[in-house]
């Protein structure tokens, strides 16, 4: 039996969510709503995940549909990066500046293309997998 393992690489820094810890923190207190005192049973932990770059799963019942959406987004990003590369190659500046910018964009393109291949492999696996635990 074949198995596919995927690793997703994100070239952007992911920040951690802000959490209220009970300590007086000016930064977190402005971002998070305070917990109302309602006794021990009513205490809740509130997390501000808006700045944490967390993607919610929209339709967990149809992973194929979700993978297709992710593939479309990756293809759009790849096309944008390729246009950015062409622009950088035509751009103004010294040859050294252009070469450095082109190398950075090529690195981004390589990461996006790799992510796209992982998504496509996951889609194929999801399309042809058989649930034997039913």
Structural overview:
The structure is a single chain. The protein has 134 residues and is mainly alpha-helical. The chain folds into 2 domains: 16-54, no CATH class; 63-128. The chain is 51% helix and 3% strand. It is built from 3 helices and 2 strands, in the order βαβαα. The chain has helices at 26-31, 63-90, 95-128, and strands at 18-19, 47-48. It has a two-stranded antiparallel ribbon with strand order 1-2. Helix 2 (63-90) runs antiparallel to helix 3. The longest helix has 34 residues, at 95-128. It is elongated, with a radius of gyration of 22 Å. It starts with 17 loop residues before the first strand and ends in a 6-residue tail after the last helix. The relative contact order is 0.14.
Topology:
Elements (H helix, E strand, L loop, with lengths): L17 E2 L6 H6 L15 E2 L14 H28 L4 H34 L6
Antiparallel strand pairs: 1-2
Helix pairs in contact: 2-3
State the main characteristics.
single chain, mainly alpha, 2 domains, 2 strands, 51% helix
Uncertain spans, ≥5 residues at pLDDT below 50? 13-17, 27-32
Q: Given the helix and strand composition, which structural class is it?
A: mainly alpha
Q: What value does the Rg take, in angstroms? A: 22 Å
How many beta strands in the DSSP annotation?
2
Beta content comes to under 5%
Count of helix runs: 3
């Amino acid at each position: 039996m074949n198995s596919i393992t995927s690793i997703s690489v994100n070239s952007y820094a992911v920040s951690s969510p802000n959490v209220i810890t009970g300590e007086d923190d000016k930064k977190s207190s402005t971002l998070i709503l305070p917990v109302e005192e309602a006794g021990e049973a009513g205490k809740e932990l509130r997390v501000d995940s808006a700045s944490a770059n967390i993607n919610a799963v929209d339709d967990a019942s149809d992973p194929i549909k979700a993978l297709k959406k992710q593939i479309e987004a990756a293809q759009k990003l790849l096309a944008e990066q390729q246009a950015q590369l062409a622009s950088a190659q035509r751009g103004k500046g010294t040859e050294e500046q252009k070469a450095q910018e082109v190398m950075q964009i090529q690195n981004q393109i390589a990461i996006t293309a790799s992510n796209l291949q992982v998504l496509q492999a996951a889609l194929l696996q999801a399309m042809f997998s058989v649930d034997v635990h039913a």
